[in-house]
Amino acid sequence: MADLTTDFVGIKSPNPFWLASAPPTDKEYNVRRAFEAGWGGVVWKTLGAEGPPVVNVNGPRYGAIYGSDRKLMGLNNIELITDRPLEVNLEEMARVKSDYPDHALIASIMVPCEEDAWKAILPRVMETGADGIELNFGCPHGMAERGMGSAVGQVPEYIEMVTRWCKKYYDRPVIVKLTPNITDIRKPAQAAKNGGADAVSLINTINSITSVDLDAMCPEPAIDGKGTHGGYCGPAVKPIAMNMVAEIARDPETAHLPISGIGGVTTWRDAAEFMALGAGNVQVCTAAMTYGFRIVEEMKRGLSQWMDEKGYTSVDQVVRRAVPNVTDWQYLNLNYVTKAKIDQNACISCGRCYAACEDTSHQAIAMKPGRVFEVIDEECVACNLCVDVCPVENCISMVEMAAGEVDPRTGLTVQKDYANWTTHPNNPAAAQAAE
Amino acid sequence: MADPLTPGIAPARLSAQEITENFTDLHKPLSMHEASVAADRCYFCFDAPCVEACPTEIDIPLFIRQIATGQPEAAGHTILEQNILGGMCARVCPTEELCEGACVREAAEGEPVQIGRLQRHATDSVMARQGHLFDRAAPTGKRVAVVGAGPAGLACAHRLAMKGHEVQIFEARPKPGGLNEYGIAAYKSTDNFAAREVEWLMGIGGISVEYDKMLGGNLSLSELTEGYDAVFLGVGLADVNALDVDGADREGVEDAVGFIAELRQAADLTALPVGRNVVVIGGGMTAIDAAIQSKLLGAENVTIAYRRSKDRMGASQYEQDLATSKGVRIVANAQPKAVHGNGAAAEMELEYTADDGSGLRGTGETMRLPADQVFRAIGQSIVPVGGLEMDGRKLRVSETGRTSMEKVWAGGDCTPGEDLTVVAVAEGRDAAEDIHATLMGEALAATGAVLGESARGGTAPRGA
């Protein structure tokens, strides 16, 4: 069995699966159940400043989009930070941490952008024995209107400033949680690093309206006939989150900044992918909210099984493993030529590849009598759309052409050497360089 | 008191409650949730094989997608514009041999999308919540006679009425519906569905029906061709093939279709007599329906005897399995030899058969089965209509149903092709289009599904 214990910026946990700061981690009862179910750590639901807590709406807080069979693909929420008194949360955190010393317990915090506010809360969090803090600079709804959450996360200068305060008044790890509601994720990550952050975590939720009630003409979740944008999460956001994780992981300025990966992690495979792209651990929310805490068991067993199969003995060996292979488009090898190939034994003759290629791509699939679908190599640009729309896994594959073969589409011989756009004759910049 | 062991042919073999349970819907309607789960399985195939397998070419992927997107009534409209009896077809079609048999998920997982039940969900939604969906065109002043108010006649009449023609239906029986009303197993058409569907169909307007009018009896083809602009014959197969063996005239030897009709019309099934020991001769759907329903009425032993091998039976494997699951025994390679009894039938003598490739032959070995009631289900035939050319045992027709006589079209079981409700609907519909085109001097409209290949613009150069 591969060792799943994780050391993330000095915070140890029995496995890399943490529950993200969210409703599942709002109170002692849930967190104890989560630890008993096997979660490696939790980021406690975001704490606010001392005083009367925030209030939540009393109507629906969540909206959703579905895949087939009502599989929850995306969830959005308009819930705010914890609406329980600060003292209650702190007392519970202290109790839980003392009962589960080997599990990671992180305090998520969101207080006004004033040094005094942070100075006031940090010592109290310290007293709970929490392993670290996570700065909620990501929450896109409600709190942002009050100058907190993503309102801070969208201004790199504020991120750096607040991070600096935290490092000043708190001596355990500081993780900065980033909002994806920006244009270039590297900027806030750099700011966090400049402020002295030990790590960043991302992504927080994405601004979203999941659906509109067409009778009431109101976005959902609808509160008395009105709706507001919520924070979007779940499997549907995973590609966006992974790109942002990879962007930070391969940016020279932040290359060694530890990352806690968040965004649609539902299976061990999702976790492994995030880690390969640079995440030192992952945080999960929607999967737990959809299936319950027991979902972590599959993640743990799956990751361990896969690591055994691959010969990885510790989680560190997986982290960043795919980062060197994340590159810019201009460096992709233009001499790499593939062709789609349909496995006729696996094909069920639905014809979706044909419809997709014929109607929307390159007319590179022939429909023959008896509903036999065959790739026309002379037309196939290897776009992969047929693979993506085929309902049968591995029925269509992209087969690489060997060097020396002639691509029947272009009539050109496949070259074995690597060549990219930067030196391509059609590239005006390359032509200039050559002159 | 109900007594399953009453000798001979007797009513009340089962209690009223047992009978009611036995004759409920074979397939319960899908709930909204079940329908959405089932609809989600459709892959929206290109030029879908299910559509090609449907004699009426319903756009199945489209209607399933409409269910999936929360519009079952719109789905119903998609179905009904191709097949006005889509509700009955959803119940009685041998889907395992048509749409569902062709479904790619049958190939992928051995579990097709439940097209039949989804179709019922959609058409039921229309009938439950909406009135008639279609509007009549402006009156054309043309009058068309339709003989037979079965699936072919009704489909033809509806399409003609929709086109603005006046339609007069002549029906031999006292009720419309044909085999939907008088044939077909009761558990496939519960709650008087056949009659409700006809009533809904008639909502188009412009169709009137005269009952107890029998072609060749109190109705002649010549008076129709003289009195109307066109005639459509959907007369079905009114003759039942005789059982040519010793003792075939004994009491208890009956036509399966007559038994089924009586059962379908019975107000109280506990009052319907059935034998304790029943033998059904034949291998088609009629044999299956008679056998299963005998069993459901409480017959103790029900045997289907079919002279050829099992794989030659007209009834699908699904129907055969349904019969055996209800306790019906199927004996293949056994041909009727004689009906024995002292007055009424008591035993059915069968002779085993074999086919060495040179034709079916009796082996000489016989067996006897107790038989209070013997049902003939060995095929039906057309009552010939004077003046019309035949094609084998059916009326000769063109692709659009034209007979050899001017002004006369025909469709349904009386013409060549499979004797299925859905085929009859397609033939009636297509004949109506041809009648319309002929009467109005217009080009014949296509009735098939709009498939991707034909929908494509087509003239742009490929791959350019």
TrEMBL record, chain A:
<feature type="domain" description="4Fe-4S ferredoxin-type">
    <location>
        <begin position="338"/>
        <end position="370"/>
    </location>
</feature>
<dbReference type="InterPro" id="IPR017896">
    <property type="entry name" value="4Fe4S_Fe-S-bd"/>
</dbReference>
<dbReference type="InterPro" id="IPR017900">
    <property type="entry name" value="4Fe4S_Fe_S_CS"/>
</dbReference>
<dbReference type="GO" id="GO:0051536">
    <property type="term" value="F:iron-sulfur cluster binding"/>
</dbReference>
<dbReference type="GO" id="GO:0046872">
    <property type="term" value="F:metal ion binding"/>
</dbReference>
<dbReference type="InterPro" id="IPR013785">
    <property type="entry name" value="Aldolase_TIM"/>
</dbReference>
<keyword id="KW-0411">Iron-sulfur</keyword>
<keyword id="KW-0408">Iron</keyword>
<keyword id="KW-0479">Metal-binding</keyword>
<dbReference type="Pfam" id="PF14697">
    <property type="entry name" value="Fer4_21"/>
</dbReference>
<dbReference type="GO" id="GO:0004159">
    <property type="term" value="F:dihydropyrimidine dehydrogenase (NAD+) activity"/>
</dbReference>
<comment type="subunit">
    <text>Heterotetramer of 2 PreA and 2 PreT subunits.</text>
</comment>
<protein>
    <recommendedName>
        <fullName>dihydrouracil dehydrogenase (NAD(+))</fullName>
        <ecNumber>1.3.1.1</ecNumber>
    </recommendedName>
</protein>
<comment type="function">
    <text>Involved in pyrimidine base degradation. Catalyzes physiologically the reduction of uracil to 5,6-dihydrouracil (DHU) by using NADH as a specific cosubstrate. It also catalyzes the reverse reaction and the reduction of thymine to 5,6-dihydrothymine (DHT).</text>
</comment>
<dbReference type="Pfam" id="PF01180">
    <property type="entry name" value="DHO_dh"/>
</dbReference>
<dbReference type="InterPro" id="IPR005720">
    <property type="entry name" value="Dihydroorotate_DH_cat"/>
</dbReference>
<comment type="similarity">
    <text>Belongs to the dihydropyrimidine dehydrogenase family.</text>
</comment>
<keyword id="KW-0560">Oxidoreductase</keyword>
<dbReference type="GO" id="GO:0005737">
    <property type="term" value="C:cytoplasm"/>
</dbReference>
<feature type="domain" description="4Fe-4S ferredoxin-type">
    <location>
        <begin position="371"/>
        <end position="401"/>
    </location>
</feature>
TrEMBL record, chain B:
<dbReference type="Pfam" id="PF07992">
    <property type="entry name" value="Pyr_redox_2"/>
</dbReference>
<feature type="domain" description="FAD/NAD(P)-binding">
    <location>
        <begin position="143"/>
        <end position="428"/>
    </location>
</feature>
<dbReference type="InterPro" id="IPR023753">
    <property type="entry name" value="FAD/NAD-binding_dom"/>
</dbReference>
<dbReference type="Pfam" id="PF14691">
    <property type="entry name" value="Fer4_20"/>
</dbReference>
<dbReference type="InterPro" id="IPR009051">
    <property type="entry name" value="Helical_ferredxn"/>
</dbReference>
<dbReference type="GO" id="GO:0051536">
    <property type="term" value="F:iron-sulfur cluster binding"/>
</dbReference>
<dbReference type="InterPro" id="IPR028261">
    <property type="entry name" value="DPD_II"/>
</dbReference>
<feature type="domain" description="Dihydroprymidine dehydrogenase">
    <location>
        <begin position="21"/>
        <end position="129"/>
    </location>
</feature>
<dbReference type="GO" id="GO:0016491">
    <property type="term" value="F:oxidoreductase activity"/>
</dbReference>
<protein>
    <submittedName>
        <fullName>Dihydropyrimidine dehydrogenase subunit A</fullName>
    </submittedName>
</protein>
<dbReference type="InterPro" id="IPR036188">
    <property type="entry name" value="FAD/NAD-bd_sf"/>
</dbReference>
